[in-house]
Specification:
The complex is a heterodimer of chains A (about 230) and B (about 140).
Chain A: E1 3-8, H1 12-22, E2 28-34, H2 37-47, E3 51-55, H3 63-73, E4 79-83, H4 88-97, E5 101-104, H5 108-120, H6 128-141, H7 158-168, H8 173-180, H9 184-198, H10 203-212
Parallel strand pairs in A: 1-2, 1-3, 3-4, 4-5
Chain B: E1 3-8, H1 12-22, E2 28-34, H2 37-47, E3 51-54, H3 63-72, E4 80-85, H4 90-98, E5 103-106, H5 110-122, E6 127-129
Parallel strand pairs in B: 1-2, 1-3, 3-4, 4-5, 5-6
Helix pairs in contact in B: 2-3
Classes of the chains: A alpha/beta (about 230), B alpha/beta (about 140).
């Protein structure tokens, strides 16, 4: 019986690359593709894949919250997180969310097959940096990085995190209501609660909070330097 | 008409996705890949492609700088650069065109726009596309 894999990444070009990579492996099939976290959760519930590969930086519902929702629905889901960065905070959040694999996007062509193979064999797969962090945590605290440690966002419910992401992406309360199938009034109540709990005063504050806490991710453009700006010493 | 294409992106998985799309087109050939701007300059010189598909955010040398330097290479006449980037920004598009790119496609739309864009720039026509649109699957 084939191992069934669900892919979730907002860039189709990346999904095509992942498909090409994974489908070379005999006995594996990509059973579905999702372009955001919400779609991934819906598809996973329907398709019941053996492995779910989720990008962290997805619109509507980021990969970390996608992982949380998947495992809340069914703790048997095996999730590999794809990320562009392996900062300590991202690693901790991915582990806390319950990911069993952690692969850098830049290394996906090299590591992803090994990661899926590990999960297929009921093992975990992490980058060397994650392993170092887990080991350091174990040595320092007498236990591995704990899933019982206080999460970074202790005061927000799962729904509030979803609303936070959508607002930080620039959606209005009405648009958020449409996406989440809620009334605008309910969304506005969530919005007020979020602002109060986090002591935020503006949408700008909310966006900064969302970026700092990996609810949304941004990539800075390169330093633009025109040739005419170059000075000769 | 045969089109020789060089792919430049620091993520191998993105290059694989681009290759999968482009190799389906009869007469088009992906002649090489590079993972940053410096490697791209070397490959342009040695492979002499017709079109360079170029990411912007890369280590060592970014795509804008590479684009400027590619234009200055002696064997670059007739070569066109198509920028494929995740920066969905009019300012960045202007920077890319100012740097000498003939086309600009946003990565989130690449599966939709890439073939049309390569076709256009290979015929020395400008192609730019930024708005989000529907996406197909593999």
């Amino acid at each position: 019986m084939k191992l069934r894999i669900l892919l979730a990444d907002d860039h189709e070009i990346v999904r095509r690359g992942l498909c090409a990579l994974l489908q070379k492996h005999e006995g594996w099939e990509v059973c579905g593709e999702a372009s955001d976290g919400r779609e991934a959760v819906e598809m996973a519930k329907r398709l019941k894949p053996d492995v779910v590969i989720v990008d962290i930086g997805m619109p509507h519902l980021n990969g970390l919250d996608t992982t949380r929702q998947l495992l809340q629905h069914d703790p048997q889901f095996k999730v590999i997180v794809l990320t562009i960065t392996d900062s300590d905070q991202i690693i901790r959040e991915a582990l806390d969310a319950g990911a069993r694999g952690f692969v850098l996007k830049s290394d996906a062509a090299r590591d992803l097959v090994s990661a899926v193979e590990a999960l297929q064999s009921k093992r975990m797969f992490f980058t060397p940096r994650v392993n170092d962090l887990v080991l350091a945590g174990f040595l320092e605290k007498g236990h591995a990085i704990s899933r019982n440690e206080p999460p970074n966002l202790p005061t927000l419910t799962a729904r509030e995190r979803e609303v936070t992401q959508l607002l930080a992406e620039g959606k209005s309360s009405k648009e958020v209501a449409t996406v989440l199938n809620l009334s605008t009034k309910t969304v506005e109540t969530h919005r007020s609660n979020i602002m109060r709990k986090l002591s935020l005063h503006s949408i700008r504050d909310l966006v900064v909070y969302a970026i700092k806490n990996n609810i949304i991710q941004i990539q800075m453009p390169p330093q633009i330097q025109r040739p005419t700006e170059t000075t000769v010493a | 008409m045969a089109v020789r294409i060089l792919l430049v992106d620091d993520h191998p998985i993105v290059r694989q996705g681009l290759r999968t799309l482009l190799e389906g087109r009869p007469g088009w050939e992906v002649v090489g890949e590079a993972s940053d701007g410096i490697e791209a300059l070397d490959k342009v010189e040695s492979l002499q492609p017709d079109v360079v598909v170029l990411d912007i955010t890369m280590p060592r040398m970014n795509g804008l700088e590479a684009c400027r330097l590619i234009q200055q290479q002696p064997n670059a006449s007739g070569l066109e650069v198509l920028v494929v980037t995740q920066h969905d920004s009019p300012q960045m598009m202007r920077e890319a065109l100012d740097a000498g790119a003939r086309g600009y496609v946003v990565k989130s739309n690449a599966a939709r726009d890439l073939l049309e864009a390569v076709e256009a720039v290979s015929q020395h026509r400008v192609f730019t596309a930024m708005a989000r649109g529907p996406q197909a699957s593999c």
